[in-house]
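Lab notebook: predicted structure, single chain.

Context: the supervisor wants predicted structures on file for every construct in the current expression panel, including those that have not yet been purified. This is the next one on the list. No modifications to the sequence; it matches the entry in the shared construct table.
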Amino acid sequence: TLQGDVAGGRFGRQVTMGESRLAVASAEGETPGGSPKGAVYIYEPLPEQSETWSQIARIDIPDQYPQETQLREPIRLDSGDVLLPVSGIGDSVGMLNWKESGDEWQFDQGVEFGESCVIQGLALDGNTAVVYVRDIGVPSEERTSALLFFEQDQGGAWVRESEIETNVRLGGMALQGDRL
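Prediction complete. Output recorded below exactly as produced.
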């Protein structure tokens, strides 16, 4: 049972767990406040009630991003970070990062990939994130896929470290330490 905001029919289009928390995405236009961009809700289990989860935060795409910015899948939750893939940042896609600060989640930064592509997968483990993208540079004749590797620097900023082009179509990804 979830306690707190529960949006319309597309609430729960993406669900992910991290440690003892649950993150649930709501599709664009399906948020209680009517945000066309979508939102993510963070829940924790109530003490002594393992079947009941209480909402501790709602994460919205910041107003500084264009109205066309849309929450995409998959979302990732890891200790004090939530990463959300988004589209509609100009002609590009990217990811937005929130950090837990005490009892609140605060928008930390946005990372624009600088390319037109489709995000197909996102894996997060501590200070490392890997993003699987396809159709880089569409509409071009040669569509490619790639794994984009990001590390958090000492200041907490996500920095793109490397890229590996691939012809393999991935269905899902998990990252544990240095293993993908």
